[in-house]
Amino acid sequence: MPNINRTFIKIIIVLIIFHTLSAIGVLTLFTNQYKILLSLSIENEAEYFNIAQGLINGKAIKTIRTIGLPLFFIPFIQLFRAVDIKQILVPVSLFNSLILYNISIILVALIALRLTNSLKIAIFTATSWTFFPWLVYLLVKVKPEYDYAGLSLGRLICQMFIYPPSDAISAFIVLLIVFLSIVFLEDKKTIFSFILGISFAISVLFRPQNIALLLLIASVFIKIKKLKSIFIFVITTLVIFIPQFIYNLAISGSIFNIKTVFDFENLTAREIGYPLPFYSVRSIPYILVSIHQRHTLYIVTSLGLISIVIVATLIDLYYKSRISFYLLISWILPYIIIYSLYNGTDHNILRFMMPIIPALLIIVSV
Questions:
Q1: Res 106 pLDDT > 70
Q2: pTM value?
Q3: What is the C-alpha to C-alpha distance for residues 206 and 86, in angstroms, rounded to an integer?
Q4: How many CB atoms lie within 10 A of CB 344?
């Protein structure tokens, strides 16, 4: 891996400053619209808030949610003496954007650097990650019929982590796990299996779909070939899951009561009148009809060209660095498979795919 020079550090600092000013600017210029968008998430986040209050008071609230986000809310509830979810929405959002996103810029740069051994690619990837929210904003804004109920601004604040749900924290922890996995491959120190176990368990507690990371972690352990490290990882993961098991036992009488949003029945795109097709293999017929009816051929063409570029780059990467190739594939593929089976992804696809967007940016940057 090439040595990190001053230019690299200066560019990362500039990107962090740019994101910080952008986040503050968005909140300042779109204050009213931002409040409206936050109000849309109140009902969903209120359940997590109630669970958090229950944990503080020693009461178990019956729910199908995992306790990762409620545990995260607790310090904010205590700090701001909150009695309502509205009192912590903005502080949580600011923490996500000004702290987690800025650290994520560093993580993306270091991951790209270690996978490609190129300072230029690392800088380009980190820059792409920083400007990606604005690219999404402009792509949605350019088609007025797609700017459904302020979707462009909604996607912007979501991609910038200026949003209270678990998307931001989930994406951040995934990046941390990927970085730790790469370092583990290089250093092979047992301590990393312990840290990976903690990080993986926390990521699943925030978003159960992050179990997709198991393929990436498994590929690392296969390469390292240390049974002791595997044992430490498994035990650590189970220990971190103990609070969830206890909570499940309290509300249902069984430790295995973790359900996910996959259990929900969602409205189809046609029922809610949303102009974009759902991203789901169950909705392929609807997607085809939507493409024909709404003249979205340019979307298919664009996605096709992007897919060709990604596949070509992966083939090239396979011959240059097979370790990097396998890590990227095991990082991306499970998430695509999981969410292709999810019946309610629709316009939220970018939210759910946030953990793998940096991987795709690395591939495009190579």
A1: yes
A2: 0.83
A3: 20
A4: 19
